[in-house]
Amino acid sequence: MKRDLESALARPAQALAAIAEADRASNLSTRATQHRSNIIKLIDEVGRRHSRHTVFRDFVTMSAVALSKADLRQAEAREELYMQTVAKYSRDEATSIAHMFGELQEGLHVAPRDILGEIFMQLEIGNSRMGQFFTPHHICELMASLTISNDIEAKVAKHGFVTVHEPASGSGATVIAMMLAMQDRGLNYQRHVHVTAIDLDFTAAMMAYVQLSLMHVPATIVHGNTLSLEKYSQWYTPAHILDGWNSRLSHARAERAAERMLAGEEGEAQAEDDNEPDAPRAA
Protein backbone atom coordinates (compact mmCIF):
# COMPACT_ATOMS: atom_id res chain seq x y z
CA MET A 1 0.00 0.00 0.00
CA LYS A 2 2.79 2.43 0.88
CA ARG A 3 4.60 1.70 -2.37
CA ASP A 4 1.38 2.30 -4.31
CA LEU A 5 0.85 5.61 -2.51
CA GLU A 6 4.42 6.71 -3.13
CA SER A 7 4.04 5.85 -6.80
CA ALA A 8 0.80 7.82 -7.08
CA LEU A 9 2.41 10.85 -5.41
CA ALA A 10 5.47 10.60 -7.61
CA ARG A 11 3.54 10.75 -10.90
CA PRO A 12 2.25 14.35 -10.49
CA ALA A 13 5.71 15.43 -9.32
CA GLN A 14 7.27 13.87 -12.41
CA ALA A 15 4.76 15.59 -14.67
CA LEU A 16 5.41 18.97 -13.04
CA ALA A 17 9.16 18.47 -13.32
CA ALA A 18 8.85 17.60 -17.01
CA ILE A 19 6.73 20.67 -17.71
CA ALA A 20 9.11 22.92 -15.74
CA GLU A 21 12.08 21.56 -17.70
CA ALA A 22 10.23 22.11 -20.98
CA ASP A 23 9.44 25.69 -19.92
CA ARG A 24 13.10 26.35 -19.26
CA ALA A 25 14.16 24.78 -22.54
CA SER A 26 11.64 26.93 -24.40
CA ASN A 27 12.69 30.09 -22.50
CA LEU A 28 9.12 30.74 -21.37
CA SER A 29 8.60 33.65 -19.01
CA THR A 30 6.33 33.63 -15.96
CA ARG A 31 3.88 35.78 -17.92
CA ALA A 32 3.81 33.17 -20.69
CA THR A 33 2.98 30.33 -18.29
CA GLN A 34 0.56 32.22 -16.02
CA HIS A 35 -2.42 31.69 -18.30
CA ARG A 36 -1.78 27.95 -18.33
CA SER A 37 -1.68 27.97 -14.53
CA ASN A 38 -4.95 29.91 -14.41
CA ILE A 39 -6.67 27.35 -16.65
CA ILE A 40 -5.46 24.49 -14.46
CA LYS A 41 -6.78 26.23 -11.34
CA LEU A 42 -10.17 26.69 -12.98
CA ILE A 43 -10.23 23.04 -14.07
CA ASP A 44 -9.44 21.99 -10.49
CA GLU A 45 -12.26 24.18 -9.17
CA VAL A 46 -14.87 22.81 -11.57
CA GLY A 47 -13.38 19.35 -11.11
CA ARG A 48 -14.51 19.24 -7.49
CA ARG A 49 -17.86 17.99 -8.73
CA HIS A 50 -16.71 16.47 -12.01
CA SER A 51 -13.52 14.62 -12.88
CA ARG A 52 -10.71 16.78 -14.25
CA HIS A 53 -10.62 14.62 -17.37
CA THR A 54 -14.32 15.35 -18.00
CA VAL A 55 -13.91 19.08 -17.37
CA PHE A 56 -10.91 19.33 -19.70
CA ARG A 57 -12.65 17.35 -22.45
CA ASP A 58 -15.81 19.43 -22.18
CA PHE A 59 -13.86 22.70 -22.07
CA VAL A 60 -12.13 21.75 -25.32
CA THR A 61 -15.38 20.56 -26.93
CA MET A 62 -17.33 23.69 -25.99
CA SER A 63 -14.48 25.90 -27.21
CA ALA A 64 -14.35 24.04 -30.52
CA VAL A 65 -18.08 24.41 -31.06
CA ALA A 66 -17.95 28.12 -30.25
CA LEU A 67 -15.18 28.60 -32.82
CA SER A 68 -16.95 26.58 -35.51
CA LYS A 69 -19.98 28.87 -35.84
CA ALA A 70 -18.82 30.05 -39.26
CA ASP A 71 -19.47 26.54 -40.60
CA LEU A 72 -23.17 27.09 -41.22
CA ARG A 73 -23.70 23.67 -42.78
CA GLN A 74 -22.95 21.98 -39.47
CA ALA A 75 -24.27 24.68 -37.14
CA GLU A 76 -27.35 22.80 -35.94
CA ALA A 77 -25.48 19.60 -35.05
CA ARG A 78 -22.71 21.58 -33.35
CA GLU A 79 -25.21 23.59 -31.31
CA GLU A 80 -26.80 20.34 -30.15
CA LEU A 81 -23.38 19.04 -29.11
CA TYR A 82 -22.74 22.25 -27.15
CA MET A 83 -26.07 22.07 -25.32
CA GLN A 84 -25.54 18.40 -24.42
CA THR A 85 -22.09 19.22 -23.06
CA VAL A 86 -22.93 22.33 -21.05
CA ALA A 87 -26.09 20.80 -19.55
CA LYS A 88 -24.14 18.94 -16.86
CA TYR A 89 -22.67 22.16 -15.41
CA SER A 90 -24.10 24.84 -13.17
CA ARG A 91 -24.16 28.45 -14.33
CA ASP A 92 -21.07 29.29 -12.25
CA GLU A 93 -19.22 26.26 -13.61
CA ALA A 94 -20.12 27.18 -17.19
CA THR A 95 -18.84 30.70 -16.50
CA SER A 96 -15.54 29.23 -15.25
CA ILE A 97 -15.22 27.21 -18.46
CA ALA A 98 -15.79 30.40 -20.45
CA HIS A 99 -12.99 32.02 -18.44
CA MET A 100 -10.71 29.10 -19.38
CA PHE A 101 -11.31 29.95 -23.03
CA GLY A 102 -10.34 33.58 -22.40
CA GLU A 103 -7.16 32.49 -20.62
CA LEU A 104 -6.24 30.24 -23.55
CA GLN A 105 -6.70 33.08 -26.01
CA GLU A 106 -4.41 35.32 -23.96
CA GLY A 107 -1.85 32.56 -23.47
CA LEU A 108 -1.58 31.86 -27.20
CA HIS A 109 -1.22 35.58 -27.85
CA VAL A 110 1.65 35.93 -25.38
CA ALA A 111 3.53 32.77 -26.43
CA PRO A 112 2.04 30.66 -29.26
CA ARG A 113 2.62 26.96 -28.55
CA ASP A 114 0.75 23.80 -27.58
CA ILE A 115 -0.70 25.12 -24.32
CA LEU A 116 -3.50 22.54 -24.23
CA GLY A 117 -0.98 19.74 -24.61
CA GLU A 118 0.99 21.11 -21.67
CA ILE A 119 -2.17 21.22 -19.55
CA PHE A 120 -3.15 17.73 -20.71
CA MET A 121 0.12 16.27 -19.47
CA GLN A 122 0.33 18.36 -16.30
CA LEU A 123 -3.11 17.12 -15.27
CA GLU A 124 -2.00 13.58 -16.16
CA ILE A 125 -5.20 12.75 -18.02
CA GLY A 126 -3.54 11.25 -21.10
CA ASN A 127 -3.88 7.66 -22.24
CA SER A 128 -0.38 6.18 -22.39
CA ARG A 129 -1.72 3.06 -24.08
CA MET A 130 -2.73 5.22 -27.06
CA GLY A 131 0.67 6.89 -27.08
CA GLN A 132 -0.67 10.21 -25.79
CA PHE A 133 2.41 12.06 -24.58
CA PHE A 134 3.17 15.78 -24.56
CA THR A 135 6.00 16.74 -26.91
CA PRO A 136 7.87 19.78 -25.52
CA HIS A 137 7.74 22.87 -27.69
CA HIS A 138 11.49 23.12 -28.18
CA ILE A 139 11.51 19.55 -29.56
CA CYS A 140 8.67 20.42 -31.92
CA GLU A 141 10.63 23.50 -33.02
CA LEU A 142 13.61 21.31 -33.88
CA MET A 143 11.43 18.84 -35.80
CA ALA A 144 9.80 21.67 -37.74
CA SER A 145 13.13 23.25 -38.66
CA LEU A 146 14.39 19.88 -39.94
CA THR A 147 11.19 19.15 -41.86
CA ILE A 148 10.52 22.44 -43.63
CA SER A 149 11.96 22.49 -47.15
CA ASN A 150 14.72 24.85 -48.20
CA ASP A 151 12.76 26.08 -51.21
CA ILE A 152 9.54 26.86 -49.37
CA GLU A 153 9.76 30.56 -50.24
CA ALA A 154 10.01 29.69 -53.94
CA LYS A 155 6.98 27.39 -53.66
CA VAL A 156 4.93 30.11 -52.03
CA ALA A 157 6.04 32.66 -54.64
CA LYS A 158 5.03 30.33 -57.47
CA HIS A 159 1.78 28.85 -56.13
CA GLY A 160 0.65 31.35 -53.51
CA PHE A 161 0.64 28.81 -50.70
CA VAL A 162 1.87 25.41 -49.55
CA THR A 163 0.12 22.60 -47.71
CA VAL A 164 0.99 20.80 -44.50
CA HIS A 165 -0.42 17.34 -43.79
CA GLU A 166 -0.25 15.80 -40.30
CA PRO A 167 -1.67 12.23 -40.15
CA ALA A 168 -1.42 11.94 -36.35
CA SER A 169 -1.72 15.51 -35.13
CA GLY A 170 -2.45 15.02 -31.44
CA SER A 171 -3.06 18.44 -29.94
CA GLY A 172 -1.31 20.17 -32.84
CA ALA A 173 2.10 20.75 -31.25
CA THR A 174 4.14 19.94 -34.36
CA VAL A 175 1.81 21.88 -36.65
CA ILE A 176 2.03 24.95 -34.39
CA ALA A 177 5.83 24.70 -34.43
CA MET A 178 5.74 24.44 -38.23
CA MET A 179 3.65 27.62 -38.45
CA LEU A 180 6.13 29.47 -36.24
CA ALA A 181 9.04 28.13 -38.31
CA MET A 182 7.40 29.52 -41.45
CA GLN A 183 6.93 32.85 -39.67
CA ASP A 184 10.63 32.86 -38.83
CA ARG A 185 11.32 32.43 -42.54
CA GLY A 186 9.34 35.58 -43.27
CA LEU A 187 6.18 33.79 -44.45
CA ASN A 188 2.69 34.64 -43.22
CA TYR A 189 1.21 31.27 -42.27
CA GLN A 190 -2.25 32.82 -42.05
CA ARG A 191 -2.16 33.49 -45.80
CA HIS A 192 0.42 31.13 -47.30
CA VAL A 193 -0.28 27.70 -45.79
CA HIS A 194 -3.16 25.27 -45.46
CA VAL A 195 -3.11 22.46 -42.90
CA THR A 196 -4.88 19.12 -42.95
CA ALA A 197 -4.56 17.39 -39.56
CA ILE A 198 -6.01 14.03 -38.52
CA ASP A 199 -6.28 12.29 -35.18
CA LEU A 200 -8.08 9.18 -33.96
CA ASP A 201 -8.89 10.67 -30.55
CA PHE A 202 -11.74 13.22 -30.60
CA THR A 203 -10.40 15.32 -27.72
CA ALA A 204 -6.94 15.50 -29.28
CA ALA A 205 -8.43 16.55 -32.63
CA MET A 206 -10.45 19.26 -30.90
CA MET A 207 -7.37 20.48 -29.03
CA ALA A 208 -5.66 20.97 -32.38
CA TYR A 209 -8.76 22.60 -33.84
CA VAL A 210 -9.12 25.11 -31.00
CA GLN A 211 -5.48 26.18 -30.97
CA LEU A 212 -5.11 26.42 -34.75
CA SER A 213 -8.39 28.35 -34.92
CA LEU A 214 -7.20 30.86 -32.32
CA MET A 215 -3.94 31.28 -34.26
CA HIS A 216 -6.04 31.90 -37.41
CA VAL A 217 -4.43 28.99 -39.27
CA PRO A 218 -6.39 27.87 -42.36
CA ALA A 219 -6.97 24.20 -41.60
CA THR A 220 -9.18 21.16 -41.93
CA ILE A 221 -9.14 19.05 -38.77
CA VAL A 222 -10.35 15.49 -39.21
CA HIS A 223 -11.44 13.23 -36.38
CA GLY A 224 -10.67 9.97 -38.10
CA ASN A 225 -8.42 6.99 -38.65
CA THR A 226 -5.46 7.66 -40.92
CA LEU A 227 -4.82 3.95 -41.50
CA SER A 228 -8.38 2.81 -42.31
CA LEU A 229 -9.31 6.17 -43.93
CA GLU A 230 -12.44 6.33 -41.75
CA LYS A 231 -13.66 9.88 -41.18
CA TYR A 232 -15.94 10.51 -38.19
CA SER A 233 -16.20 14.29 -38.36
CA GLN A 234 -14.52 17.19 -40.14
CA TRP A 235 -13.92 20.63 -38.67
CA TYR A 236 -12.89 23.72 -40.63
CA THR A 237 -11.12 26.55 -38.84
CA PRO A 238 -12.64 30.03 -39.17
CA ALA A 239 -9.64 31.05 -41.30
CA HIS A 240 -10.38 28.20 -43.75
CA ILE A 241 -14.00 29.31 -44.18
CA LEU A 242 -13.69 33.10 -44.01
CA ASP A 243 -10.65 33.30 -46.30
CA GLY A 244 -12.17 31.15 -49.05
CA TRP A 245 -9.84 28.18 -48.89
CA ASN A 246 -12.28 25.77 -50.54
CA SER A 247 -11.93 27.82 -53.69
CA ARG A 248 -8.16 28.20 -53.38
CA LEU A 249 -7.65 24.47 -52.92
CA SER A 250 -9.95 23.61 -55.82
CA HIS A 251 -8.07 26.03 -58.05
CA ALA A 252 -4.75 24.47 -57.00
CA ARG A 253 -6.02 21.00 -57.92
CA ALA A 254 -7.21 22.20 -61.31
CA GLU A 255 -3.88 23.90 -61.90
CA ARG A 256 -1.95 20.76 -61.04
CA ALA A 257 -4.22 18.64 -63.23
CA ALA A 258 -3.56 20.96 -66.17
CA GLU A 259 0.19 20.76 -65.55
CA ARG A 260 0.01 16.96 -65.60
CA MET A 261 -1.96 16.91 -68.82
CA LEU A 262 0.53 19.24 -70.50
CA ALA A 263 3.35 17.03 -69.23
CA GLY A 264 1.66 14.02 -70.83
CA GLU A 265 1.11 12.14 -67.61
CA GLU A 266 -1.55 9.45 -67.71
CA GLY A 267 -4.58 10.08 -65.54
CA GLU A 268 -4.81 11.70 -62.16
CA ALA A 269 -5.63 10.31 -58.74
CA GLN A 270 -8.91 11.88 -57.73
CA ALA A 271 -9.14 13.26 -54.21
CA GLU A 272 -12.02 11.79 -52.24
CA ASP A 273 -12.72 15.07 -50.51
CA ASP A 274 -12.90 18.45 -52.21
CA ASN A 275 -10.86 19.90 -49.38
CA GLU A 276 -7.91 17.56 -49.75
CA PRO A 277 -5.49 19.75 -51.72
CA ASP A 278 -3.19 18.73 -54.54
CA ALA A 279 -0.71 21.51 -54.01
CA PRO A 280 2.97 21.99 -53.22
CA ARG A 281 3.87 20.68 -49.76
CA ALA A 282 5.74 22.65 -47.15
CA ALA A 283 8.10 19.73 -46.71
Account of the protein in words:
It is built from 13 helices and four strands. The chain has a four-stranded mixed β-sheet with strand order 1-2-3-4. Helix 2 (30-46) packs antiparallel against helix 5 and helix 7 crosses helix 9. It has 283 residues and is α/β, with parallel strands linked by helices. The chain has two domains: 2-127, no CATH class; 137-262.
Query: What is the SS-derived class?
Result: alpha/beta
User: What's the count of strands?
Assistant: 4
Separation of termini?
51 Å
| Fraction of residues in helix | 55-70%
Order of helices and strands: HHHHHHHHEHHEHEEHH
- The low-confidence parts are 1-10, 268-279
Looking at how many chains there are and whether they match, the oligomeric state comes to single chain
Q: What characterizes the major β-sheet?
A: 4 strands, mixed
User: Shape from CA axes?
Assistant: globular
- Strands across the major sheet, in which order? 1-2-3-4
> What proportion of the residues form beta strands (DSSP E)?
5-15%
Counted up, domains total: 2
Q: How large, in whole angstroms, is the Cα Rg?
A: 20 Å
Number of helices: 13
Query: What would the average pLDDT be, to the nearest integer?
Result: 86
Concise structural overview:
With 283 residues, this protein is α/β, with parallel strands linked by helices. The protein has helices spanning 2-25, 30-46, 52-67, 75-86, 91-110, 115-122, 137-147, 152-159, 173-184, 189-192, 202-214, 238-242, 245-262; strands at 162-166, 193-199, 219-225, 230-236. It contains 13 helices and four strands.
